[in-house]
Input
Amino acid sequence: MKSKFFFIAIVSVTILGISFLFAMVMGSVELSFGQVYNTLFICSMDQNTGVQNIVAQNSCTVDPIYRKIIWEIRLPRILMAFLTGVGLSIAGAILQSVTRNPLADPYLFGISSGAALGAVLAISVFSTGIISVTFGALAGGIFSVILMLTLAGRAALQVERLLLSGVAVSFMLGAFTSLIIYYSDPEIASTLLFWMMGSFTNSQWGDLWLPALCISIGLMLFLIYRSWIGAIQAGDEGAFTLGIPVSQLRLIMLIICSIITAVLVAQVGGIGFVGLMIPHISRFLVGSKLSKVLFMCVVIGGSFMLWVDVIAHSLIPNQVLPVGIVTAAIGSLFFFVILKSRGRNL
Amino acid sequence: MDFFDFPTSSVFASQKIFCWVKRLSISRPSVNNRCSTAAFAADKICWCVDEKLILDSLTFEIKSQEFVGLIGPNGAGKSSLLRCLYGLNKITSGTLNFNGKNSDSYSRREMAQKIAVLVQEPPTHFDMNVSDVVAMGLIPHQPLLAFSTEEDKVSVENAINMVELKDKQNSAFNTLSGGEKQRVMVARAIVQKPQVLILDEPTNHLDIQHQIEILQLVKQMNVTVVLSIHDLNIAAAFCDRLILMNKGSIVADGNCEEVLTRKNLKNIFQIEAEIDQHPYHSGQRITYDLTGGKENEI
Output
């Protein structure tokens, strides 16, 4: 069993490494592996000032434009794609575990709808600065969780009621978002629609720290509580008899997932299906043990989103497709294949 | 007509019970010597849901290492009472002491360190393997950040060996049969090292062989056992004491001879039955009259 996991882990990490390389070289401007290697490890440019490192000056043969593309456009975009894949996947895995619902993902609980509403409000009503969008999405995500818990009331302790309440909140906030878009100026409306379909294109270095911080802290907490979450996965009553504060833990996990999702939605817009699909693929490969599932979510979720980004930039020449479209298209197809291959054993 | 439908299974089951009782009578001290201190002491406990009285002023004591069966028709309040004992249901009034202290004064974790529970339906979600499910029994004794030690792994393996599932330890829990699932849950309880084991209808959906296997395993744990059970013959074979419940109240409480009477069965279960000495063990045998007494009239 262990050797199987290590084998899968090594293969997956290798694929992740290869995905990084391909994501670096592929795009609207095609680069060679040599150019990427030289830029990253030899030219080591000071990204803030644009001044080349004096020590490496003589050996650096890469055109400054390409260096700029790699350092200032491609690398932050790739890292954001990776973080998005990781964040949504681990949030999905945790939500599926604590609710014992294989269909749970950040979208189902209205977290994404809330974050989208907050971000849309920030773009259309308040300002277009990214801090305001981030703040709006974060506030929207948290608001959706509070609304869901309030609507569920005492029934929030029952997972089924919590899910139904989440679905209701999701549709309610989705309706508000659509309403705002409907009454927006056409130019803003098209910006909003494009934003909602998801994109990594405008990602910058400064955008990375908040998702990275939230995902790291979230992942750490998920790993600390892994045995408790595993017990909840096997049933509330059983978990209670093992001394686990089931409702409180579920609530905390829900809030952590909502923060991760809200921060990501704020940065990259709405990207569906990842949080649903990657945890299933991970479980299919390594079983249900949470530490292994989370590890695989990080690796597969990250790799998957890197390839989505590559496809979004390369599929149609001189045009970038919204990431959400590519995710849903590839994801649903891939998911269908998995379903067929697993037959009745899902 | 015997309570078993098929003569072969009846003989087989009776022989198993007989062998088991003989083994126990050699290896274990008598009930009276074992049960000196009270594990649970309930004084007029009530439990209500939305002002509806589910448990009505129950008073009883369960002594340490006693094997107590809760019997009664569906909806009698057996599961509700068990849930009060392990703290899932908070009693509305009355006093419930555990090990001489008010049960509310224990933290949830402290309770879990002392009381293991086999819930009515074993987990069916996600494909956890047997070792993972059994290892959950370590949770109440482990700090949150702890990693499994070699000792933990040995204790999980030993428990799996005890329930004779060594060859299935890497199998997915969902692929096991009902009896195997219950054995896994017993292994989890063994790992939990409890003073008290509470079982809510542990033999539901199991064939007679697996019913006996599960209860034998439980008996071997040598702890205080409180279980709800529907099969009165099995209850008579295994329990030191029975508590008969109906409509949230205790109707009878005592040893099997005192509780399993024709009158009680008629009043509570609305069934005629013959009760006599079981030919293979010291308990009673209940033979149900499926004709409703018409045969006698003829």
About this structure: Confidence is low (pLDDT under 50) at residues 1-35 of chain B. The CA atoms of residues 154 and 160 of chain B lie 10 Å apart. The longest helix of chain B spans residues 7-27. Chain B touches chain A at residues 86-88, 107-113, 115-117, 119, 121, 123, 125-129, 132-133, 136-137, 139-140, 142, 144-145, 170, 172, 192 (CB under 8 Å).
